[in-house]
Amino acid sequence: MVIWCNTVFDAAGTELLRKSLAGHTLVEAATATADVLTPGAPDPELARADVAIGQPAVAQLLTPGRLRWVHLSTAGYTPYDRADVRDALQQRGIPLTTSSSAFADPCAQHVLAMMLARARRLPESVRDQITTRGWEYVERRFESVLLTGQSVLIFGFGSIGRRLAELLAPFEMKVAAVRRSPNGDEGVEIVGPGDVAGALAAADHVVNLLPHNGDTMGFFDSAKFAAMKPGACFYNVGRGKTVDQDALLAALNSGRLGAACLDVTNPEPLPKDHPLWSAPNCLITPHTAGGRRDQDPAIVRHFLANLARLERGEPLANRVI
């Protein structure tokens, strides 16, 4: 098969990809880039490819060609989550998969780290170490809480959500998930659309893993924050545009929302004068939840495992179309 790639991987990822594709023809796009946040540029070489890995130009997926499968080098797929792309790929029987499995562990561990940091009051101690160096023994010791037995509501239960549920199991937390299309194998309580308000009112932790599309734009609005349990903590490791940030700020400033832990914002980078930086109990990380030192080899290994599935005629992992 001819395998086209427009993602520039690091040296280890590139070596692994080239070495592992013996028997196939690897075509590297002239416009290849390491920037996965920018849609790929059109490339004439894609027309002769059987498989595409990276970020192919959306317009090229709408035209007939030899493609049998498109694999994205990212967990997100917002530019491709369109009716015309879905129709074009489905009519030609072309699956679209993502690399979300490669990012599942780091994103899930990032959420868990945020939970533990808030529960054990680590941000406050770091602040004191940097500023007053005060020994706030009583405040820290008796403000700290346990995750054990608390409840978590996850919005978006794909690879990341499943891994997060696994990591939370030793804490004996009550995990529920809101999912658009349940499979029946989630292993946690699934909340239906009509029960979201009640589930929000019962959750100590609300985790947003939603992708950004027409249905999720501003999904977490003032009504959702008002429905949350007073003192709950909100986490966003999905996409910044799924949250009404004015409503989030109002919920934080009023004290109804106990805390927010944000890895994604709108826009990115977040401007230095944005009020979220100084909002009470707001912890911000710069879109690093999916980060890992071996990111590129991990993406390549995931692609190669899916390629083997394609060759064996097995279902592909992380299929979204």
What does this structure look like?
- The chain has helices at 11-20, 58-61, 83-91, 100-119, 122-130, 137-143, 159-168, 196-202, 222-227, 245-254, 295-312, and strands at 2-7, 25-33, 51-54, 69-72, 96-97, 151-155, 174-178, 189-191, 205-208, 233-236, 259-262, 282-284.
- The protein has 321 residues and is α/β, with parallel strands linked by helices.
- The protein starts with a strand and ends in a 9-residue tail after the last helix.
- It folds into two domains: 2-98 and 293-312, Rossmann fold (3-Layer(aba) Sandwich); 104-284, Rossmann fold, CATH 3.40.50.
- Helix 4 crosses helix 7 (159-168).
Topology, pairings included?
Blueprint: E1 2-7, H1 11-20, E2 25-33, E3 51-54, H2 58-61, E4 69-72, H3 83-91, E5 96-97, H4 100-119, H5 122-130, H6 137-143, E6 151-155, H7 159-168, E7 174-178, E8 189-191, H8 196-202, E9 205-208, H9 222-227, E10 233-236, H10 245-254, E11 259-262, E12 282-284, H11 295-312
Parallel strand pairs: 1-2, 1-3, 3-4, 4-5, 6-7, 6-9, 7-8, 9-10, 10-11, 11-12
Indicate the percent of residues in helices. 25-40%
Oligomeric state as shown: single chain
Strand content: 15-25%
CATH superfamily of the largest domain: NAD(P)-binding Rossmann-like Domain
What's the structural domain tally?
2
Biggest sheet architecture: 7 strands, parallel
Number of helices: 11
> What is the CATH third-level topology name of the largest domain?
Rossmann fold
Rounded Rg: 21 Å
Distance between the first and last residues' Cα? 21 Å
Overall mean pLDDT stands at: 95
SSE sequence, one letter per element: EHEEHEHEHHHEHEEHEHEHEEH
* CATH class identity of the largest domain: Alpha Beta
Structural class: alpha/beta
Strand order of the largest sheet: 8-7-6-9-10-11-12
Number of strands: 12
CATH architecture of the largest domain: 3-Layer(aba) Sandwich
Low-confidence stretches: none
